[in-house]
Design a protein that fits this description.
Largest sheet: 4 strands, antiparallel
Number of domains: 1
Radius of gyration: 17 Å
Number of strands: 4
Number of helices: 2
Shape: elongated
Distance between the termini: 65 Å
Strand order of the largest sheet: 1-2-3-4
Strand content: 25-35%
Order of helices and strands: EEEEHH
Structural class: alpha+beta
Length: 82
């Protein structure tokens, strides 16, 4: 079996975010402003569009985004019950 090599090229870097070109599309590497972990967003997703439009902005990973949404739902439920 022949090993396939993925072409990996660093395209640009700006403020902690860098984009890489793979044979299957582009990926941005960004840093979550909540947990400070690096995460990857893939071309074609909504998060990719946000990172692409505002590279200097505050972006969060999927785990932190889920926790924020869950806390907002809980707060709304508490307000409706009181």
């Amino acid at each position: 079996m022949a090993a396939t090599s993925m072409a990996l090229h660093l395209i640009a870097t700006t403020g902690g975010i860098f984009v890489q070109s793979y044979s299957d599309g582009f990926r941005f590497h960004a840093t979550c402003y909540i947990c400070k972990n690096e995460f990857i967003v893939f071309e074609g997703t909504q998060a990719y569009d946000y990172v692409k439009r505002d590279r200097q902005g505050m972006h969060c990973c999927e785990d932190c985004k889920y926790r924020i949404e869950l806390e907002a739902r809980l707060q709304l439920g508490r307000r409706l019950l009181t």
